[in-house]
Amino acid sequence: MRALVLEEFNGPLVMKDVPVPIISPHEVLVRVRNVGVCGTDLKIRAGRMGLDALPLIMGHEVAGEVAEVGSEIEYLAPGDRVAVGFYVTCSRCQFCREGRDTLCPQVRQHGFSIDGGMAGYIKTPGVNLCKVPDHVPLEQACILSDAVSTSYHAVTKRARVGPGNTVALIGVGGVGLHALHCQVGWRLHHCRGHQRRTFSAGPKVGGRCCD
Ligand SMILES: [Zn+2]
Ligand SMILES: [Zn+2]
After folding, report:
1. 128: CA distance to ligand 2 center in Å?
2. I want to staple 138 with a disulfide (CB 3.0 to 4.6 A). Which of 3, 61, 63, 176 is the partner?
3. Res. 151: pLDDT tops 70
4. What per-residue confidence (pLDDT) applies to 207?
5. 150-158 — which CB contacts under 8 Å span 24+ positions?
6. pTM of the model
7. Which ligand number lies closest to the CA of residue 145?
8. How far, in Å, is the centroid of ligand 2 from the Cα of 75?
9. How confident is the prediction for the chain on average, in pLDDT?
10. Which domains does the chain have, with CATH numbers?
11. Ligand index nearest the alpha carbon of residue 41
12. CA 20–ligand 2 middle distance (angstroms)
């Protein structure tokens, strides 16, 4: 398969032919369809993430179709559309059992310390995959596991923003814009101009709908 490989920090991503990954019984092989490019990819390429596992296939915002399932996987089948969670953890420690798996002492990350999705295929444990409904385009689904879930976690779990709260959003890049969407979910309303339900960021941030 073809893959974009980071061979040296600050060097180019090199298009190479590499072997298709071989899966274990608990893993799934995903045919990559879409990969997001995250701001953190710039830091990884520049060697500013404290990683030393080169060569590396980058890409941690990945969506695609299941190509092959391991013998222990019962809930996925070839052809399923999936988004790939990029944290690979032990699934057994206290943090994993509490749903705080990013704190797992054995955590590894696709595109950071293990190969990511800028390639024809990626292999990952079956528990890392989330089925994507047919009406959600994979180019949108690929950012769910990072840019969207990061901001969703920040808004709902860390800041615990609720209806009626006034919030300041500092830094409206990729993650910040999704945080904005997470927060304005409460502003879902009926827009008279569009004759449909819509949501807006409200007049104070200039995202108001036509009414
Ligand atoms: Zn990222
Ligand atoms: Zn763990």
Report:
1. 13
2. 63
3. yes
4. 46
5. 150/175, 150/178, 151/175, 151/176, 151/178, 151/179, 151/181, 151/182, 152/178, 152/182, 154/179, 155/179, 155/182, 155/183, 156/182
6. 0.82
7. 1
8. 22
9. 86
10. 2-142 (3.90.180.10), 153-205 (no CATH)
11. 1
12. 27
